[in-house]
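Please fill in the sequence for the structure shown.

STRUCTURE ENCODING:
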């Protein structure tokens, strides 16, 4: 069985996903979202789901302002803390125009119906290992660079928060908090004037 009868929905109340099916723009029934039997969309977007002990939900139900799981895990995930200021129509669900997590920008998966999340139109900060997407109007700040590649950096505002994003930054924090305060006095002489710096 190929479940093709679950594509090209004429009833808008049944539409769960907008995608290409067999190379043609189409829709897939909401009953096929997170079903995981076989991909109907060419890019398998209908099966990009998160399974937790509380529930299973599609990634596009995250950070949408609607609680779908016990404990609000779909709304309290870390990626929901950094959202775009611009909005787009997510490809899964009838949610209308919504901001999306910055983590979805440029990740190789078209989350917005027009694919704008994969286009180079978003604000960035940093370069190379610290290149990151930021909300429009964000002032670029220095970051703590991770020793390993994932995720590459941690914002200074997130250092010493008890979560080892890089794997070692909280160890660095605890060691730095144990150091005694250092005072250094330097004297310089220029044109017979002595200046003391502390």
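FILLED IN BY: designer on duty
SEQUENCE:
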């Amino acid at each position: 069985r190929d479940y093709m009868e679950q594509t090209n929905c004429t009833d808008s109340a049944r539409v769960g996903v907008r995608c290409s099916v067999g190379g043609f723009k189409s829709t897939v029934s909401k009953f096929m979202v997170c079903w995981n039997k076989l991909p109907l969309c060419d890019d398998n977007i209908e099966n990009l789901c998160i399974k937790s002990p509380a529930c299973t939900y599609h990634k596009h139900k995250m950070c949408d302002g609607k609680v779908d799981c016990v404990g609000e895990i779909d709304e309290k995930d870390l990626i929901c803390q950094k959202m775009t200021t611009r909005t787009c129509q997510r490809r899964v669900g009838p949610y209308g125009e919504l901001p999306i997590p910055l983590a979805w920008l440029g990740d190789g998966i078209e989350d917005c119906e027009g694919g704008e999340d994969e286009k180079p139109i978003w604000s960035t900060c940093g370069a190379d290992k610290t290149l990151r997407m930021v909300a429009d109007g964000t002032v670029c700040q220095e970051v703590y660079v991770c020793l390993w590649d994932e995720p590459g950096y941690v914002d200074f505002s997130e250092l010493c928060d008890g979560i080892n994003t890089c794997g070692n930054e909280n160890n660095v924090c605890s060691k730095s908090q144990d150091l005694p305060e250092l005072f250094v006095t330097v004297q310089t002489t220029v044109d017979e004037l002595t200046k003391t710096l502390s």
